[in-house]
Amino acid sequence: MRRGVLLAALAALTLSAACAPSVPGSSGSAGAQQPASSDRLTIGTTADVLNYNPLVGNSRTDSWVTNLMYPHLTQMDMSGKRVPYLATEWSYAEDGKSATVTLRDDMKWSDGKPVTADDVVFSVMTVKKENFGVVAGLITALDEAVAVSPTQVRFDLTRPDGTFLDNVGFWLPVVPKHVFEKAPSVQKFANDSNWVSAGPFKLTKVERGQRYVMERVDGFGPGAPAVKEVVFRVFPDVNTEVLALRNGEIDVIGNVLPPATAAELKNDPSVKLEQIPSLGWAHLQYNVKRKPLDDVRVRQALAHAVDYEAIRNIALKGYAKSSNSSVLTPSLPEWTDPSAKEYAFDPALSKQLLAQAGVSNLSLSMIYDQADPNIARWAPMVRDSAKQAGITIKLQGLERNTYVDKSLNHDFDIYAGSWAIMDNPPANLGLAFKTGGYINYGQVSDPELDALIDKAQKALSVEEAKPPIQEAARRIRDQVYDNVLYVETFNIAHSVKWTGFKPMPSELLSIVNPLSLAAAKPAG
Asked: How far apart are the C-alpha atoms of 342 and 365, rounded to whole Å?
């Protein structure tokens, strides 16, 4: 699997569309707005659809639109647990060498053909054979998928992998075999017209740069939508979206509000803010292959030289939670470790640790994406708090492509960034911290940690995987392989004239997910 593809999905989704703007206009015009109608729900976005092939596209707008057209096996509740969608049941064989999924029998493609196990098999095996997209990197244990019946799929695995069902259920879009199999290469199939889909809404009209119109699918299996039409309207920036929301031109701002904008909007009586937990975290990673960062005492000194509370309260305007310096975040409560404790901001202790390591006049560079408004605000705070410990940090705000290139090539002392979706700890920690992991930017190579992650990945239940993965997380914290700063609380704005949304964690799902938009209705 290509590392850049995985980065795009797990990291790039956290980018806001614009730097934190001031809120334009006033709410005075809200009283003149017409009541909400179940005829149309209008959602603002700041980007066009770039790719209509759900197996390939992974930008926010791509996903929002195609998720309404192509089903996944599962969705996710607010605690991160998988809930049925196309799949009704799923389980592993006792030896862990296979897994079985049972499908709904009442979902149809828009051309009238039923959605069956053959479509699931085709989708997953195409990704495996052509080796592209996020899913390819998460299903490496898959040997073969077999349609046991029209409503049952068996996945034969090369090894026990307790992460497989969560990964394939959440990440794999199911596409119609009878349409996609005609393409010489599914990876290169544009799928940009005559769509055959099977979601709560179908795409009927595209005006690039303007709007994407989607019509209700009556008789949709998991529940017919309340609204007849969903329209995605394209705006140049968040400022314009906010003005459009206040003027009644749109009903929802799809993308996450910058913290400063959310802080100003929270008292607007015409707007409701839905608060959504991130499934990722913001962090600092240290290049453990570079001296003196190969000494854990130096990394611990750096961890105690960060004012975490100030970053959350000032840079994030309070819209962030502590993860207690753990990669097992409060967004996934069934995995969190109650014994985890955040590094104390203690410059004096930092100085002691550096002295013990025999390091003086420590000077390091820190790379970050200069277009990320949150990190651009807190990067100087990291530099300034480090000064109190006698540590010099030189900031390198980089253009996005340069930043990604340096991250992938481990060309940094300190990496400042964020993960967008880390939804499955045994799988995600393998990607980020195992020797040779796809997104192991800090070049961690720790046999003890590798063994713990391997043990957790082989476990077939959360109960079995939790002890080794919590021990792995404690080792990551104690060795400072990752310095977790916060878990952001996302704000999604919508008109108070609408209700019924079903929030899900992450910017990708938020309230712009299939189950949520199908349930949305005018308030009152």
From this structure: 24
